[in-house]
Automatic annotation (TrEMBL):
<dbReference type="InterPro" id="IPR050540">
    <property type="entry name" value="F-actin_Monoox_Mical"/>
</dbReference>
<feature type="coiled-coil region">
    <location>
        <begin position="23"/>
        <end position="57"/>
    </location>
</feature>
<keyword id="KW-0175">Coiled coil</keyword>
<keyword id="KW-0472">Membrane</keyword>
<dbReference type="Pfam" id="PF12130">
    <property type="entry name" value="bMERB_dom"/>
</dbReference>
<dbReference type="GO" id="GO:0004497">
    <property type="term" value="F:monooxygenase activity"/>
</dbReference>
<keyword id="KW-0560">Oxidoreductase</keyword>
<dbReference type="InterPro" id="IPR022735">
    <property type="entry name" value="bMERB_dom"/>
</dbReference>
<feature type="domain" description="BMERB">
    <location>
        <begin position="13"/>
        <end position="154"/>
    </location>
</feature>
<protein>
    <submittedName>
        <fullName>MICA1 monooxygenase</fullName>
    </submittedName>
</protein>
<keyword id="KW-0503">Monooxygenase</keyword>
Length: 154
């Protein structure tokens, strides 16, 4: 088993472990965001009730509650934006995994000598190459979406 094949296999495993760790981190953060959404929703409901029920309260108190409510809405919007970014990151991880798997298939065909390749092998190699290009294009679209989102936020 040549050294370069072992090196490629080791690098593939390392990148797979990194993707797995990133996926776990993203999943944990999505769960935290969900919990925070619920907490913000409960706080918002309480503030809305206070604003509706306490018409006799001083104007300063109502202004303070309104400001708190607006702050909660802003915080919720920021969390929604972060959640959107994380969902894009999840899609990107899936595409990275697909690309890695396709890469390995393609390498197996490319490592074969041209004289030993059957027409079916050549056709399969072309099909795998086509799949690889599709995945790369999808990843490119995701990156463009992220960039457009960042620019629109600025």
């Amino acid at each position: 088993y040549p050294t370069w094949k072992r090196t490629l296999a080791r690098r593939a495993r390392e990148s797979q472990v990194k993707r797995f760790c990133r996926a776990q981190t993203i999943q944990r953060r999505l769960e935290e965001i969900e919990v925070t959404f619920r907490e913000l929703e409960q706080q918002g409901v309480k503030l809305e009730k206070l604003l509706r029920d306490e018409n006799q309260s001083p104007a300063d108190q109502q202004t303070q509650w309104t400001n708190q409510l607006l702050y909660l809405v802003q915080k919720k919007n920021n969390l929604m934006s972060e959640e959107s970014d994380l969902m894009i990151a999840v899609q990107e991880l899936k595409l990275e995994e697909q690309q890695c798997q396709i890469d390995q298939k393609l390498r197996s065909y490319m490592n074969k000598q041209e004289t030993l390749k059957t027409p079916e092998d050549q056709k399969a190699e072309q099909e795998i190459l086509k799949q690889l290009l599709e995945v790369v294009n999808k990843r490119n679209i995701l990156i463009q979406m992220q960039e457009e989102k960042r620019l629109s936020e600025l």
